[in-house]
Write a structure and sequence with these properties.
Helix 4 packs antiparallel against helix 5, helix 7 runs parallel beside helix 13 and helix 11 runs antiparallel to helix 12. This protein is elongated. The N terminus is likely disordered. A two-stranded antiparallel ribbon has the order 1-2. Strands 3-4 form a two-stranded parallel sheet. The chain has a two-stranded antiparallel sheet with strand order 5-6. The protein contains 20 helices and six strands. The chain folds into three domains: about 140 residues, Fumarase C, Chain B, domain 1 (Orthogonal Bundle), CATH 1.10.275.10; about 250 residues, Fumarase/aspartase (Central domain) (Fumarase C, Chain A, domain 2), CATH 1.20.200; about 60 residues, Ribonucleotide Reductase Protein R1, domain 1 (Orthogonal Bundle). With about 500 residues, it is mostly helical.
């Protein structure tokens, strides 16, 4: 029997031509004539002669064709097991494996195209195999159902794609860390209720998104971890009378084991829902970050400017420079939410075991993955190429009385109760507004008119740079804290 490593291909990243968008275009322009469709795997109890419209409605090849590599890899492992335990002759198993390898190689090289008339990717592979090797090809589906087959393909595909998303998230975190490092001492106003609140560094502010994204990685990895048991061998839902070795196929395909209940193995798509949920939270974070960038690039803020590579103009207003990439990311978050709701609704109230409703899982989860990957791929370079305007951030910080808390803390440290200090500082701010002053420019005599506790060192306490630098508590906005956070990300998340 060939070595086990021959079938352990679950993590390969190869792209198969004419599988996704191009295949959908082909389907859109191809007329499927009645009687010309490929023979159905399930023909027997019925003739399999659906009306052309029913065939088109039932067909899933347009979207499940992207799992061709996973389908072939799973079939190779299944054939190896069938031969090893004597369910089919070893010679037949070897012929099947060789035929499947040929199909996979030809798909990768573009020597063959996936037939859009096939009902699904499983049908296409099996019929192509039988066309190539003859009767032995018909033995492949022994002790297997399309129910456990598609559940397997989907897990294999989603594990691969989830790893790609995680890699993209890490690249974005790395881009955030680089910008944060360059601006660990750049003062800007921090906001609550979109009102200027306290001074922070720009590096500290954007690192918040890096840590949100680090939790997204944990959620994505958890979702992938919950796909680590193989459904293959569950068959339709009740198992099989053949002496199969589920552990062998699970190990060959990179799983830690097999799902213990055959009904559960084919009946649930909670792993799709969980992944879509993780992607939805990820898109929430990208959407919020996009909203900040959109605000910051507005003329009212002008904190940052996106490069021409990642912004657009107006067709009628020549002065405009629009943050369209960020706006698209913000908009596409809703699309991923919709995919999650699709999956939840599909599963709600669905009786055991397999139902055709489950065919709707793939378009939703594939779209969620594609959308997240697209947004991540544009976000990191958009961030890395933007220009930061520290002078505008500093000006906004100076005009917002965001050092008022520091003035109150100054009095508290000299023995005044905080609530009293809070009220007195509010009076100072009102006085500054009336006289068009700032806390940094207000004369010492005006301070002392309200409290004798004020001395000349009040100007150090309300200095914006010192306000930020003095917040040295763990996780705070001081430059040294910002640099510690960056080290933590680089050592523990994006290493």
């Amino acid at each position: 029997m060939p070595g086990e490593t021959r079938y352990n291909k679950g993590k390969q990243q190869s792209t198969i031509p004419l599988v996704d968008a191009r295949l959908r275009r082909a389907l859109a322009t191809t007329t499927i004539e009645s009687g010309k469709s490929m023979e159905k795997l399930w023909a027997g109890r019925t003739t399999g002669g659906n009306a052309a419209l029913a065939d088109e409605f039932n067909r899933s090849i347009a979207f499940d064709s992207r799992m061709a590599e996973q389908d072939i890899t799973g079939s190779m492992a299944h054939a190896a097991m069938l031969g090893a335990v004597g369910i089919i002759p070893q010679a037949s198993a070897d012929a099947i494996i060789a035929g499947l390898e040929g199909i996979l190689n030809d798909l990768r090289c573009g020597l063959i195209k996936i037939d859009p008339r096939a009902e699904d990717i499983h049908s296409f592979v099996e019929f192509e195999l039988t066309r190539r090797i003859g009767e032995d090809g018909k033995k492949l589906h022994t002790a297997r159902s399309r129910n456990d087959q598609v559940a397997l393909d989907l897990r294999l595909y989603l594990r691969k794609d989830t790893a790609e998303v995680v890699s993209l998230v890490k690249s974005l975190i790395a881009a955030i860390a680089d910008v944060a490092e360059a601006h660990a001492e750049t003062i800007m106003p921090g906001y609550t209720h979109l009102q200027r609140a306290q001074p922070v560094t720009f590096g500290h502010w954007i690192l918040a998104y890096a840590f949100m994204l680090s939790r997204d990685i944990a959620r994505l990895n958890s979702a992938a971890g919950n796909m680590d048991l193989s459904p293959l061998g569950a068959c339709a839902f009740a198992g099989t009378t053949y002496p199969i070795d589920r552990g062998m196929t699970a190990k060959a395909l990179g799983f830690s084991g097999a799902l213990p209940n055959s009904v559960d193995a084919v009946a649930d798509r909670d792993f799709c829902v969980e992944l879509a949920g993780a992607l939805s939270i990820l898109m929430t974070h990208l959407s919020r970050f996009s909203e900040e960038i959109i605000l910051w690039t507005s003329w009212e803020f002008r904190f940052v400017e996106l490069s021409d590579e990642f912004s657009t103009g107006s067709s009628i207003m020549p002065q405009k420079k629009n943050s369209d990439m960020a706006e698209l990311v913000r908009g596409k978050a809703g699309r991923v939410y919709g995919d999650l709701i699709t999956l939840l609704t599909m599963m709600k109230g669905l009786p055991l075991a397999y139902n055709k409703d489950l065919q709707e899982d793939k378009e939703a989860i594939f779209d969620a993955l594609d959308t997240a990957k697209l947004c991540l791929s544009v976000f990191a370079p958009m961030l890395s190429t933007m220009t930061v305007h520290p002078e505008n951030m500093r000006k906004a910080a100076a005009e917002g009385f965001i050092n008022a808390t520091d003035a109150a803390d100054y009095l508290v440290k000299k023995g005044m109760p905080f609530r009293t200090a809070y009220k007195l500082t509010g009076q100072l701010v009102a006085q500054c507004i009336a006289s068009r002053q700032t806390l940094e420019s207000l004369p010492l005599s005006d301070y002392q008119a309200l409290s004798e506790l004020f001395e000349a060192d009040i100007y150090e306490a309300v200095n914006l740079d010192l306000c930020a630098k003095s917040r040295t508590s763990e996780g705070g906005t001081s430059p040294e804290s910002v640099r510690a956070q960056i080290r933590q990300l680089r050592e523990n998340v994006i290493k």
